[in-house]
Amino acid sequence: MVIYFIPILLYWFLFCHVHPLCEVFLGYISFLFYSPAYLNILNIYSLCRIDDISWGTKGLDSAGFGKNAALKGGWKLLKFVHVFKYVFWNIIVAAVLLSLGSNYQTRFWVTFGMVVMIGGSVGLKVFVALVYMMLYKIRAPKIAE
Question: How many other β-carbons are positioned within 10 Å of the β-carbon of residue 138?
Answer without folding.
Answer: 9
